[in-house]
Specification:
This protein is mostly helical and 175 residues long. The chain is built from 7 helices and no strands. It has 2 domains: 93 residues, no CATH class; 76 residues, no CATH class. It is globular.
Length: 175
């Protein structure tokens, strides 16, 4: 049996990362990467839009200071780390194009799954910007600092997630 990280080790590593980022004067979060990337693209194609763009307010400071911050490296590190973990893991994970739970509920329709994933991802990022941060920012950083906004956001995420799972998969739809 190949070894894998326990939830305790992963929690300790995440806590140490959170402390390091907090001590550097920042907070753990990834949506800034997406708003900065959107800012770059909008600035490239429509430079007159950037000063008034909500997508970069509070993250980049305007068109004159758009820059790749540490969040870019965090997102890049997530992708690189996931790739390395996948290539070096000895744990056999069966590969499936569409999970059986999805097929049981919606049928074997890869395009429908892709459309749902794309729309869900867009809504997640859009909502994160409107909320002023993502789950890692509000829940991990906010709750670790006992911020009321993080606690309320965390409760809302779990309430919405449980409700959505029950609506989509029903009460007995576990994997």
């Amino acid at each position: 049996m190949a070894s894998k990280w326990s939830w305790v080790n992963a929690g300790i590593a995440l806590g140490l990362l959170n402390i390091t980022i907090f001590l550097s004067g920042n907070h753990l979060g990834m949506t800034t990467f997406y708003s900065q990337t959107t800012g770059y693209l909008v600035n490239f194609f429509f430079p007159e839009w950037i000063p008034d763009s909500y997508w970069i307010k509070g993250t980049c400071g305007g068109a004159e200071s758009l820059s790749a911050g540490w969040q870019w490296l965090l997102v890049l590190g997530v992708f690189i780390g996931a790739y390395i973990a996948n290539r070096t893991s000895k744990v056999e994970v069966p590969r499936e194009d569409i999970p059986e739970m999805w097929i049981g509920r919606f049928g074997n329709r890869p395009r429908l799954r892709f459309v749902h994933a794309f729309i869900g991802g867009f809504l997640l990022l859009f909502g994160s910007r409107l909320a002023g941060g993502c789950t890692s920012s509000h829940v991990i950083s906010g709750m670790s600092q006992m911020a009321l906004s993080g606690i309320v956001f965390g409760m809302a995420v779990f309430a919405a997630g449980i409700t959505t799972a029950l609506l989509i998969y029903g009460s007995g739809g576990g994997a």
